[in-house]
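Hi P.,

Sorry for the delay on this. The queue was packed all week, but I finally got your sequence through. Input first:
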Amino acid sequence: MWTQTIDPTGELWSSALIAVTPILVFLLCLTVFKLKGITAALIAVALQVIVALWPFGMPAASIAGAGLFGILTAIWPIAYIIVMAVWLYKITVASGRFDVIRSSISGISPDQRVQVLLISFCFGAFLEGAAGFGVPIAICAALLVQLGFGPVKAAMLSLVANVAAGAYGAIGIPVIVGARVGEVDVLDLSWDMVLVLQLLTLAVPFILVMILDGWRGVRETLPMTLGVSLAFSGVQAAVLMTLGPELADILPGLAAMIVVFAISRVWAPSRIYREDGGSAPKPTRHDFNEVVVAWSPFYILTATIFVWSVPWFKSLFADGGPLAWLVFPVPIPGITDVVVPAGKDVATTATWDWAPISATGTAILLAVIITFVTTPQLRSGQLWGQLSATVRELWRAVVLIALILVVANIANYSGGTASIGNALAGVGLLFPLFAPIIGWFGVFITGSVVNNNTLFAQLQSVTATQIGVDPTLLVAANTAGGAVAKVVSPQSIAIAAGAVGLTGREGEILRASIWYSLGMLAWICVWVFLLSLVVSG
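Then the structure:
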């Protein structure tokens, strides 16, 4: 067995600086040197292997095991989910239904500022609550491109819009996991998420409009932007404070969509905004039934994922459940029973679970099948042709995700991630100012708020207790920091790039998005610090 060390140099800050080097180099390669995503990731992998070998002293076999774990996770469930979601989108386009969807959205408003609120913010939040795992980013970015947005702008807008929903994706799992790992009450954590994140959530619709059209756009769309902001944030806060996190995206997303429809019937902006400066296409009239049928793939998607996400369905495949035999756990060699986490006496267990039925991707596959069966315009040749086209377009994005997960897993199992977290925790009473940064970093390297809370919720809780701050507040800060990191997470950007046809040009999306992520992170850091002065531990 091999025991991690989080301070191999004897000076925690220098150990943390060495540990963070591969990620910093990756960012520089994308933003300054403008390398392709895969090239930058390969450089980061090479550096991460060197750092793990020295100074952290991780055995080569364990490094290989951690890398294998990252590759397997990239394939299943991440790539499976992404490919299925984009496949569903493509067959919707091939069937001709997307033309109806596009014109129905244009019929609500030809103004692209309103369209981005409806699609990326409202519909994206609804999909985030039902699915998560990059599904809303892929679908919403592709929808915006079809409506005439530039690919980079479409991807960036969908990433920024996801901030309001990213903390509660896939039926509230990030908050539920954060409460369990951080050993705090889940409803208390939901209340503190309102304290930490709701002001930013209120601002996100205004930020989206400003990205498109500045302050002039905010003034011209104020009734719609304000209505969407108040409806979404108000319903989300009410759900979090009374029901918990499970429906904190789905119900607000629905409420905000209803508000868009209602306001559009009585109000329209004085000037129609189009990103390219051209005139809006003349909307085609469709009857109600035609619009309902056109949107049906997304209703079906929501229904199947909802079933896959509810506790009773998950319990069927849990340990001891009647269908547990359909989950095939694969222990990772070099990690399982080999790596002992720092401060522990027992070796970790790293297991890759291949679950062909209970996987979220299978729920999306079922939606594809139902959509195909209920769409007479589609032929089997088109179905399989769109799958082939999807794989051809996304394989580079999947490779990039795999490389990032290799870096993340080696950092985690070598002790590098813990080194960074503990170094930030060493600042004492100033720690709440930096607590969201730990969450930001956790999502940047793993791509998941769930994984981030798995890594750092306990650290946040323990540190909060030591310095006399409410542990629930800092677990909420960790979750909120992770939510704004999804804007620039390499996994999220790879998904967005694949959806809008910019695979290999991920750096363009990152450069367009990073300042929004960092600006929102700075706000959360300052706000959490101020809250820590008045919220007792």
